[in-house]
Amino acid sequence: MKGIQAYLTEWESTQKPSRLAIPDRQIQCLTWHKPMSSKRELNMDATFFHDTQQTGVGMILRDEQGEFITMRTVVKEGCATVDIGEALGFYEVLSWLKDMEI
Fold first, then answer.
1. Taking the CA of residue 51 as centre, how many other CA atoms within 13 Å lie in the half-sphere pointing to its CB?
2. What is the reported pTM?
3. Contact 42/60 with Cβ under 8 angstroms?
4. Phi, psi for 22 (deg, rounded to 5)
5. Where are the alpha helices (H) located in 1-102, listed in sequence order?
6. Could you tell me if 77 and 54 are in contact, meaning their C-beta atoms sit under 8 angstroms apart?
7. Contact call for residues 61 and 19 (beta carbons, < 8 A)
8. Distances, alpha carbon 32 to alpha carbons 29, 38, 42, 43, in Å
């Protein structure tokens, strides 16, 4: 039960607007757009669980209508930097696409 409470608390904290001061960086809000006709789009993002010292990667594959095809999540031990986490995400995407023979 303690793990569920920690997960819920972490989820709730992500739902609150935050005011992060990131020096020398500009934060962009990106909007998803449908891929071109007869194409698929794969989106990936990395996340960091500092309390458990883990890095997570989420991937979703959509068709040209934006409809869900499949998804995958991966959690690795160790809390990486943002750059390393994103690089890990790209590696996992390429491995996943290779496994699916896409």
1. 5
2. 0.61
3. yes
4. -115, 105
5. 2-15, 82-100
6. yes
7. no
8. 10, 17, 11, 9
Tens of pLDDT, residues 62-102: 988 888 999 999 999 998 788 888 899 999 999 999 998 87
CA distance 78 to 25: 25
Distance CA 75, CA 26 (A): 28
Report the pLDDT value the prediction gives residue 80, as an integer from 0 to 100: 77
- Under the banding of pLDDT at 50, 70 and 90, the label for residue 55 is very high
Tokens of 39: 């194409």
Residue at token pair 């891929």: 35
Tokens of 1: 């039960």
**Cα separation, 55 vs 89, whole angstroms:** 10
